[in-house]
From TrEMBL:
Similarity annotation: Belongs to the threonine synthase family.
Keywords from the named record: Amino-acid biosynthesis, Pyridoxal phosphate
Record's keyword annotation contains Amino-acid biosynthesis: yes
UniProt cross-references to SUPFAM superfamilies, sorted A to Z: P-loop containing nucleoside triphosphate hydrolases, Tryptophan synthase beta subunit-like PLP-dependent enzymes
Molecular function GO labels: pyridoxal phosphate binding
Designated name of the protein: THNS1 protein
Transmembrane segment boundaries: none
Length: 737
């Protein structure tokens, strides 16, 4: 059902008249015929018998946008208010509302929607249609619901300028803002696609965004992933086995040893779209950003919203989830420790287990392998322990950590967070060995094949090598910038610097990704401790591990020499040259070093600056900040603070990522505060810290975990590949068989 020429609501051209017209036009004006045929074919292939259904609050521009979309597609346009409700009732919508009242109006409106049907059309819903569940279920069956998401303040301004004072639900004591906020829950329930519409965006632009969004929705083939080590010439041969988001979440590491990245890069937001997120909550920002990064064919918007709400709704002790706090001068802290295990890892690992459980096939069991230098362990154990019981039966996890390379409280956490489907194994080595061992296990096809055939179990990764781990980190870097704008500290477009304590390069890479997506980040500052291989690399272009030994420090989460996510960054600045990336990392593996070309080093130094901090300077910074502000930094944040002080030029604000709560590193903190005698019991240390009444307060979730679990039991393994594989097989036998 379609028509060819200008927009005429509800007027269709019959098949016979179309054939006659096409024949005449083809003979008399072949060029014009070709253009019209191309236009018809485009709309027919985009819509077929489906409808595009525009949904949003009153004042969102649904009617105007619908007419423009209809013109562009040469298809019927139906406005529910004008063409259905008023025709059915023989009175205006406002008269009907005044006549029957709020509740009866919704029921009558829903009944009219249930009697309505169309195909191949653009339909503009009323603002209150989504409040009637049966009506929406009916119309959604044959359509793609597009939510025109306009900021509430913009809607209020538009409605007031039009003198619209009667909308469904508005009554004495209930403000227009309350009505609009109430309706959002219904809009979120029904949409397939969200289109962000700022205050000054022309309807023509919105219509183009709608068409682009519908095309994306219908073509998941556009959003595939490649390995950082795949060659351009080899990609054409891989087309028969394309990989999508759900594939890379479950697979973790590419078969060639590389890391997965989106083939077409990350989505970009306009300045207007970012500014449309200024007033919304953290969870809403997360949903909008992740909807653009995860194709709805992998995870539908409604399911993604449910997962995000589960991850961030109640599991974080701060309602703002990732608040930004002014520290001093032009320095701000992004507090990333309000999750259940008190570190930034919670942002990804409260979310990823649910993404993973949704994406994996039901026919196979999965064992997740994790290597941690500290905070990942308890976060991943806690995250996977929150899965539904049915998912726990088919998903288990083993967490490898350096037995003597984490803080006592981190170790107690990892042991205490063990559940029926999640275990911790201490390895008599360092983090680099644990991480390298996991990579080697994934690329050992004999071993992974044996596990699949013998036990019906596949291996997967939840480290930051997994692409899904990076996406939630992009969200909090973007959100921090938006918070500074919302607080009036900067205007949108003004630059900020970001300083991050960096080990495995995932967190700082996520900040760079946020910059690529449109957040005005000027410089990403990489802060290292005495394991400063990244500082040297960013300064010289030489990544050199020859003769370097890992140094145990007060900031163990960045006690790393091999930074896995650096590979993704180098792949990006090398214009996706997988052969070069393979050459560099093979040389690192075999010879212990590599050197960047001069042009690539120049690109790198445009994005990144780096510095490092000694343990002594770290403790001094903790003491100094507490003395002047009453705020206690954890050891990793202190490393970033020292580096920020040295490298910032004070021409713009700098956001320091506070990646963990100081409670996790109590012995070092007490030493920094110059406590002479430190009890070795982790609980006693936390009680002592709580007596300081400092900011932020003691992380009570951490305190409760230690109270309940004590030190418990865990397995310890030699630094030997055969021993690790034996542990893995035994755990599979015990859990799945």
């Amino acid at each position: 059902m379609f028509h060819i020429f200008q927009y005429q609501p509800l007027r269709l051209i019959t098949q016979n008249s179309l054939s006659s017209m096409c024949l005449k036009l083809m003979l008399s004006r072949p060029v014009a015929f070709a253009q019209i045929w191309k236009s018809w074919f485009s709309s027919h292939s985009l819509l077929g018998k489906k409808n595009i259904i525009l949904m949003g609050p009153p004042g969102a521009g649904k009617t105007t946008t619908g007419r423009i979309v209809g013109q562009k597609l040469d298809c019927p346009v139906i406005d529910i208010d004008d063409d259905v409700l008023e025709t059915t009732w023989n009175m205006s919508v406002s008269e009907k509302l005044q006549d029957v009242g709020y509740e009866e109006f919704l029921e009558e409106e829903g009944k009219a929607l249930l009697k309505f049907s169309a195909s191949g059309s653009v339909i503009s819903l009323s603002g209150s249609n989504p409040l009637h569940a049966a009506g929406m279920q009916h119309i959604k069956k044959n359509g793609i619901v597009v939510y025109l998401d306009v900021p509430t303040t913009v809607i209020i301004s538009r409605l007031k300028s039009k003198g619209m004072d009667r909308i469904v639900g508005l009554s004495p004591g209930i403000s227009l803002k309350d009505v609009l906020q109430f309706r959002k829950q219904f809009y979120k329930r029904w949409f397939d696609i969200r289109v962000l519409c700022g205050g000054d965006v022309e309807a023509e632009v919105v219509a183009e965004k709608v068409l682009d969004a519908v095309k994306r929705y219908q073509d998941s083939e556009l959003e595939t992933f490649i390995s950082t080590r795949s060659s351009r010439s080899g990609r054409s041969t891989e087309d028969s086995h394309k990989l999508y988001f759900s594939d890379v979440v479950t697979q973790g590491l590419a078969l060639d040893g590389g890391l997965f990245v989106p083939e077409r890069g990350l989505p970009k937001f306009t300045a207007e779209e970012w500014q449309g997120l200024l007033e919304v909550t953290y969870t809403e920002r997360a949903q909008v950003i992740l909807e653009r990064c995860i194709h709805p064919a992998d995870i539908p918007a409604s399911k993604l919203a449910e997962i995000i709400e589960t991850a961030y709704g109640e599991n974080f002790s701060c309602s703002k989830v990732a608040p930004v706090r002014h520290l001093a001068g032009n320095q701000f802290l992004l507090e990333l420790f309000h999750g259940p295990t008190a570190s930034f890892k919670d942002f990804a690992l409260q979310l990823v287990p649910h993404l993973f459980a949704y994406c994996i096939p039901r026919s196979c069991n999965y064992l997740i392998l994790v290597a941690t230098s500290g905070d990942t362990g308890s976060a991943v154990l806690d995250g996977f322990s929150r899965l539904h019981d049915t998912d726990k039966q088919r998903i288990a996890l083993v967490n490898f950590f350096p037995e003597d390379g984490v803080s006592p409280i981190q170790k107690s956490q990892m042991i205490g967070c063990q559940k029926e489907n999640a275990w911790s194994v201490g390895v008599k080595s360092d983090f680099d060995f644990c991480q390298t061992a996991i990579k080697q296990i994934f690329t050992n096809s004999d071993f992974t094949g044996f596990l699949t055939v013998e036990y019906g179990t596949a291996l997967a990764a939840a480290n930051s090598i997994n692409w899904a781990r990076l996406l939630p980190q992009i969200v909090y870097h973007a959100s921090a910038y938006l918070d500074l704008v919302h607080q009036g500290i900067i205007s949108f477009g003004s630059p900020v610097d970001i300083c991050i304590p960096t080990g495995n390069f995932g967190n700082i890479l996520a900040a760079f990704y946020a910059k690529m997506m449109g957040i005005p980040i000027r410089k990403c500052i990489c802060a290292s401790n005495e394991n400063n291989v990244l500082t040297d690399f960013i300064s010289t272009g030489v990544y050199d591990l020859r003769g370097r030994k890992l140094i145990s420090s007060f900031s163990p989460a960045v006690d790393i020499l091999k930074s896995s996510n650096l590979e993704r960054y180098l792949h990006l600045i090398a214009n996706e040259d997988g052969q070069l990336v393979t050459q560099l990392f093979n040389q690192l593996e075999n010879q212990g070093h590599f050197q960047l070309r001069r042009d690539l080093l120049g690109k790198l130094q445009q994005d990144l600056v780096a510095g490092w901090c000694s343990d002594e300077d770290c403790l001094a910074a903790i003491h100094s900040v507490y003395s002047t502000t009453g705020y206690i930094l954890d050891t990793h944040t202190a490393v970033a603070k020292v580096v920020a002080d040295r490298l910032q030029d004070r021409t713009c604000p700098i956001i320091i990522s506070s990646t963990a709560h100081y409670s996790k590193f109590a012995p070092a903190i007490l030493r920094a505060l110059r406590i002479a005698e430190i009890n070795q019991n982790p609980l006693s240390q936390l009680h002592l810290l709580s007596s300081y009444s400092a900011l932020p307060p003691i992380h009570w979730g951490l305190l409760e975990t230690l109270k309940k679990t004590g030190n418990g039991n865990h397995q310890v393994c030699a630094a030997d590949m055969s021993a690790l594989m034996s542990h893995i097989e035994t755990l599979i036998q015990n859990h799945f068989m």
